[in-house]
Amino acid sequence: MTPLRFTLNGQVVELNDQDPSTPLLWVLRDRLGKTGTKFGCGIAMCGACTVHLDGVAVRSCSVEVGTIAGRHVRTIEGLAEAEGALHPLQEAWIEHDVAQCGYCQPGQLMQAAALLAKHPNPSDDDIDAAMSGNLCRCGTYVRIRAAIHSAAAKLAAKGGAA
Amino acid sequence: MAGGGLVLGVRFAYAGEETSAEAAKAAFKPNAYIRIGTDNQVWISAPNPDLGQGVKTSLPMITAEELCADWNRVVVEQAALDPAAYGWQGAGGSTSTPNNWMRMRRAGAVGRALLVSAAAKRWRVPASDCVAEQGIVKHAASGRSATFGELASDAAHQRMPDPESVPLKERSEFRLLGTRVGGVDNHAIVTGRLQYGIDQVVPGMVYATYVKGPSVAARVKKVDLDAIRRLPGVKDAFVIEGHGGELAAGVAIIASSTHEAFNAADNAAIVWDESDSPKDDWKAFVAQAEALGDKDGRVVGERGEPDDALGSSAHVLNASYSYPFIFHATMEPQNCTAWWHDGIMELWAPSQNPDSGAQEVAKMLGLPQHKVLVHLLRVGGGFGRRLRNDYMVEVAAIARRVNAPVKMTHTRESDLTHDFLRPGGFHHFKGSVNSKGFLEAWTHHFISFGYHGRPVSGGGLGADVFPGPLARNFRLTETLLPLGLRTGPWRAPGASAYAWAIQSFLHELSSAAGTDHVAFLLDILGEPRWLPPRNEDSLNTGRAAGVIKLAAEKAGWGKPLPPGRGMGIAFHFCHRGHAAEVAEVSVDASGMLTVHRVVAACDVGPIVNLSGAENQVQGAIVDGLSAMWLQELTFKDGHIEQSNFNDYGLLRIPQAPKIEVHFIQSDYPPTGLGEPAIPPVAPAVCNAIFAATGKRVRRFPIVSEGIKV
User: Fold this and answer.
1) Cα distance from B607 to chain A (closest Cα, Å)?
2) From its phi and psi, is residue B64 left (phi > 0), alpha (psi between -120 and 50) or beta?
3) First to last CA, chain B
4) Among A134, B127, B218, B386, which residue's beta carbon has the most beta carbons within 10 A?
């Protein structure tokens, strides 16, 4: 079996003997130690496992790892541009004290980052449409909306998308 | 810690226990609450698990306040499980704040006294002339100052003051409490570095799942374990018999990854013996409850002459309300990690009640208690689910047989179908108003569920619940339908469901009488006073009136609304918290509901962390809306009929309303806020739907009444 190669947060990953039908989620979590991407439902209904695949937000529980050869995966651990830095959304999440239990928030952040990359100044309706696949049982939706607006404003002031 | 700092531990008695100064001194225990390094770093322990209710931040804030520490130099540590040092280290019943308020204050005040005493001794001045402020002790007259770090080594050698009599700050002196402080784990959460239970990695660990039967008390009848062992990645599979308590019978599957364990569970052919399983059927319960509507049950409480009052009234209203069973749906599915080594069972447990879990594990394995070691973790949602510790005994039973650390994870389907459910309930009301349009008589038959004649967990209702203690003519009766399914506490147990029925029927009465509902509620409350047992844990009619008036005022109660909009208000008291909420809604021609905004007013005494407190209320409102609007778990033949978020919905962001939160920061001791803001939201919304449309919602979830998302 040829090794499976893809890029994870800018680094090339090469996996030997990887069953191609394994969901990307479990390769990230159990094989690569990237536990920031969460398991919530396994059927793409909760968004806790959201990562970027070539810049598009996807549910990693429902992406077979064999389909991502040569592609770019970004997880919450690689959302910020540099080690030690924070993405404007992460800063806004801290500033608005969004999290309660926090478990769904990596998925929320990855979904929001994909939204801002496409719509740097989203309306409430844009946010609702883009974020409706991400569940939060603690009910932090009000703060998620506020934090996305805040990050968008900060990005606009800097003059560009993340 | 840089060498030789202050290590301070003060033992306090459990809540409710007498604390003698002698006992407190004798039980000096290092590292219990505070450590201060000579490098000026301050560590404060967070004694209780944080499931999203914010206590890992708010409780250490209380200690930091009294210590006069600079919050920016404080590092919060999750305490080890040590009930002898910390009291009950659980999270439930909105008790973390009230139980720990004085303990955390005294711990900080003792630390401050030691630091001040060290400074006074060094400067040869009276301690009373020195003050601590933002991590520095100052002597104003001489202009001398020293940081906590500079004083830490000396402070460790000062005589311990009596924690019971150490001076505490006046509320007016608080600098940190009541401000907005971000969660101490926020950075780790937003960068994905925070390790929940499900993220634990222990070197050499194997991955497991535990397959339980389709009904309560199901046993494994037949399973081909060798066939399971041949599935990809599977290391072992074995049957666990179960013992009727927290440990249900099942098949443990040990694999090289969680996915392989799940895959093997999906493909395992297991035949279950369900001969002892209950055959509960939701539709049959509904039919039974409807048939009981006209009858009374066992009398729970009675006052005045309810039958005479109803009989002499020209306008008696009758109504029946019902709500289904629901699931806890913590975003982190149930899981636990355990390692059997050196005669010790070591667990990494995402539990709300870890000490109880440790006891269950010790009992199951026949181990002395000190051979069960539990690490407290931040938990991905609790809501009462994790007061039960089934996942702890399951993984311990598995790990006992595996020569490696084991992380056991349940699939979402397994989590949902083996939950300790919020029980459904049925309410039949009769009521009347007097000639002035205010409440005259109220009878209430509550049909709930029981085991052996006692209400199931989350299925009880007392006569002390509003308006019980205040209605002049009142009767509450109860009928319990025998239940086999397992139930448990679900955020504001009982209240989060029955308050809707009660507050809705009150609104039916005021609406029929043409009485303003705020005036109607205030009339029931009457003069400000404590209701029995007349202590700070009970309903205070003045505090209740205060939150009702504030919510109404902030929402603009009574102002003209655009066509199609309606406003509703509801109040509830539970878990020592008084909360009122006003909802403003509209329903379009297709039945689509929009909750435009919810205005909440709460009185839980002084607020510890304003950001965290507002977050709890905002979350409770969304959570309450989610339960009323969408959630329904049904069962037939003892089998749960839903499985995952495809057929069990939670509220999503488009339905989340704008929320305004107001607090009355009264001078009563601060109490918890995880629960009190949930019960009023559903009745406030349903009363608003009535105001907007004339339609009364009497069944949950409201999608089943034609109210669409």
Assistant:
1) 16
2) alpha
3) 54
4) B386
Please, which residues have CB within 8 angstroms of residue B509's CB and are 6 or more apart in sequence?
B317, B431, B432, B433, B439, B520
Q: How far is it between the farthest Cα atoms of chain A?
A: 50
CB-CB contact of B678 with B326 (8 Å) = no
Contacts of A94 in chain B (CB under 8 A): 182, 186-187, 190
Give the DSSP letter of residue A27.
I
* Contact (Cβ atoms closer than 8 angstroms) between residue B670 and residue B605: yes
Contact present, B405 and B347 (Cβ < 8 Å): no
Dist CA A29 CA A41 (whole Å)? 15
Model pTM above 0.90: yes
Q: In angstroms, rounded to a whole number, what is the distance separating the alpha carbons of residues B595 and B682?
A: 11
Q: Does residue B350 sit at the A interface (CB-CB below 8 Å)?
A: no
Residues B362-411 have pLDDT tens digits of 999 999 999 999 999 999 999 999 999 999 999 999 999 999 999 999 99
Dihedral, A128, A130, A132, A133 alpha carbons, nearest 10: -170
φ, ψ dihedrals at B258, nearest 5°: -60, -40
The pLDDT score that the predictor gives to residue A1 is 76
Q: What is this model's ipTM?
A: 0.98
- How does pLDDT run across B168-225, given as a tens digit for each residue? 999 999 999 999 999 999 999 999 999 999 999 999 999 999 999 999 999 999 999 9
Residue B285's contacts (CB-CB under 8 Å, 6 or more residues apart) are B424, B449, B481
Helix (H) or strand (E) segment spanning residue B262: helix B258-267
Q: Choose among B447, B507, B435, B473: nearest CA to B697.
A: B507
Cβ neighbours around B365 below 10 Å, total: 16
Encoded amino acid at B374, one letter: V
Model pLDDT for residues A83-116, shown as the tens digit of each residue: 889 999 999 999 999 999 999 999 999 999 999 9
Contact B496, B674 (CB under 8 A): no
Q: Are B66 and B42 in contact (CB under 8 A)?
A: no
3-state DSSP call for residue B139?
A: strand
Collect all residues with Cβ–Cβ distance below 8 Å to B483 and sequence separation of at least 6: B278, B280, B423, B449, B450, B451, B456, B459
> What tokens does B256 get?
């090289």
The candidate with the shortest Cα–Cα distance to B373, out of B396, B398, B344, is B344
Please check whether residue A128 touches B, CB under 8 A.
yes
Question: How many CB pairs lie under 8 A apart between chains A and B?
Answer: 189
Tokens of B648: 């069990």
Cβ contact B279:B637 at 8 Å: yes
**Contact list, B381 vs chain A (CB under 8 Å):** 101, 103, 137-138
Dmax (CA) of chain B: 84
SS3 B138: strand
